[in-house]
Amino acid sequence: MQLSIIIPVLNEAGVLPGLLDHLAPLRACGAEVIVVDGGSGDGSQQIASRAGAQVICAERGRARQMNAGASAAHGEVLLFLHADTALPLCAGQAIETVIRRGGSADEIAWGHFAVRIDGCAFMLRVVARLMNWRSRLTGIATGDQAMFMTKRAFEAVGGFPDQPLMEDIEMSKRLLARSRPIYLMDRVATSGRRWEVNGVWRTIWLMWRLRWHYWRGVPASELARSYR
């Protein structure tokens, strides 16, 4: 059962070397690593290519980039990974185990990992616990939690919606209508850089406000302007 790891990037030269080095053991075990560049100007494409990853270009936008990566993927299972997020060492085996337990890669199965947020601020640990609690309760995952799914599940819901924000929330809803997610307790480690640069409390308020408005039906294109 081959795993395809799809990484959408835009000017991520600062984190790509470490990430791709971290993924080298998974590549050695047969995983496919696809870096989907949305028009970087900092050498991200060259860094990824030198590290041995497959590099493709796509129109800017995380959803569009992830869909392009999925189209190019050969694996039966797709894992969508942010450039500033590191997988646990057991990720490949853990995913294969739970997928096979459900039957095969032909099943409509999907899931995500628990998350921790790396950084100095104590509140980042609180935020991570709340994210994990929320996702277990609601079945809604975010991109920071390294969503994975069988290719059949991805195709069954038509891929990620072509929208500039909340594509992970919408994808979770589509998949949740077909099956509950698999929740892996092994934690991915995502960077707290955005939280610390913009202020932890300010970022918390922004994200909850955006999700509240999205739940109320505000278009993602309008919310994206506030996010930026």
Topology:
Elements: E1 3-9, H1 16-28, E2 32-37, H2 44-50, E3 54-57, H3 62-72, E4 77-80, E5 85-86, H4 91-102, E6 110-118, H5 123-138, E7 148-150, H6 151-156, H7 167-176, E8 182-191, H8 193-198, H9 200-215, H10 220-227
Helix pairs in contact: 9-10
Return Rg in Å: 17 Å
The appropriate CATH architecture is Alpha-Beta Complex
Global mean pLDDT: 92
- By oligomeric state, this entry counts as single chain
Number of strands: 8
The structural domain count equals 1
Q: From the helix content, strand content and strand pairing, which structural class follows? A: alpha/beta
Number of helices: 10
Percentage of residues in helical conformation: 40-55%
Q: Strand fraction band?
A: 15-25%
Find the CATH superfamily.
Spore Coat Polysaccharide Biosynthesis Protein SpsA, Chain A
CATH topology: Spore Coat Polysaccharide Biosynthesis Protein SpsA, Chain A
Report the span from N to C terminus: 39 Å
What is the H-and-E element order?
EHEHEHEEHEHEHHEHHH
Low-confidence stretches: none
